[in-house]
Amino acid sequence: MEIFPCNNMIYNYFGKRPIESKDGVSNHLLIYHCLDVAAVGQVLLQNDDNLLDRMRRNTGLDKEKSLSLITFFLTMHDLGKFSEGVKNGIGNIIGIHHIIGLNLWPQIWQEIWQENLLGLDKSFNDNESNWKDLFEPWFHSVMDHHKDFNNHPTDNRTIYFTEENIATAGCFVRESAKLLLDINSVMPSIKIRDGMHVSFKNISKWLKELTVWSDWIGSNIDNFQYCTITKSSPTESIKNYWDNIALPTIESYGNRFPYR
User: Fold this and answer.
1) Residue 1 lies in a domain
2) How far apart are CA 216 and CA 9, in angstroms?
3) Which domain holds residue 209?
4) pLDDT tens-digit map of 86-97
5) What does pTM read for this prediction?
6) 199 in a domain, yes or no?
7) How many domains does the chain have?
8) What is the CATH classification number for the domain harbouring 175?
């Protein structure tokens, strides 16, 4: 049973606003912005064999599976924007969206764990806390894409999020996992072993930098036009946008990435 069932509330959150794009659209759905950034990160990694190989060696997965896993985590970089304060345009909350996003980790992890969105090989190790500790640095790294966590106090409360906010964020995480991860093949080859937590923490350092670059490029309206398509189900919208807009947009640049 899904912890956070999906519904059309996912279309009520915006990742970028209110600048008018070339097409006259002034808002960009949050789910689409998250996919833009993930698409950029995926293509950047595909074009950086050295970095992808370092990440592969630390995960113990092959390149394709490492790429899928990292791309999935990139989709979560702006989960803090599912906050009611951000949704309502409260300035001081918008400015710390990446910081308050950290508060969602316990709920997001429960979605990942109970639905086994990563296809974890629990037969080898079913200790939830071990798995959670393994991936927590990655979540922290994608959230720190403005690289200023040290300048702001953090807390472990979810006061910034309503139950609906949390449920919608969980819905997006689940749909992103369905899109990007083959749960039957991505993760079962990972087994928690000595040194594994250190290896994953090493990756988190590179993942933070990758998220910073990906968010910068993916936030450029000249690269990704604003879009508010809301006519289909969340599953259909996310897959359609990824396949037909996010990936083709960044792939069209080839090796000429749109650094501005």
Assistant:
1) no
2) 27
3) 8-251
4) 766 655 655 677
5) 0.87
6) yes
7) 1
8) 1.10.3210.30
